[in-house]
Write a structure and sequence with these properties.
binds copper (II) ion
């Protein structure tokens, strides 16, 4: 009789732990998909442009707004002393669009670095 009770207790525990096991899997699966979302958020790439012809802060602002107007551009920092523009774009955005935008604003640009 005691053996039967012990067996039943073991079976019940096994069932509980079995359920918990799949529950944990579900929780893990959940956190996995949320980390995929986080990766989608950082699904950007950085481009460094060398910009020719900038002489003052006005130029910097012109170049910056020209780049920011390009669809897919997330962020842009233009540095006058280094004559560079650090641009964060959504992956898959052609860098030629950025170069064209800068040229249309009256400056020359080329890609110096791509991560
Ligand atoms: Cu200027």
């Amino acid at each position: 009789m005691h053996k039967l009770i012990i067996t039943m207790v073991v079976v019940v525990f096994a069932l509980i732990f079995g359920t918990f096991g799949s529950f944990q899997e579900k929780v893990l699966a959940c956190s996995c998909s949320s980390s995929t979302l986080a990766e989608e958020k950082s699904d950007n790439e950085r481009l460094a442009l060398e910009v020719e012809g900038m002489t003052c802060d006005g130029c910097v602002e012109t170049v910056r707004s020209a780049i920011m107007d390009v669809k897919g551009v997330v962020d842009c920092h233009v540095h006058l002393p280094e004559k560079t523009a650090q641009v964060v774009v959504k992956k898959g955005i052609g860098s030629d669009k950025l170069l064209r935008a800068v040229e249309e604003a009256g400056y020359k640009a080329r890609i110096v670095e791509k991560e």
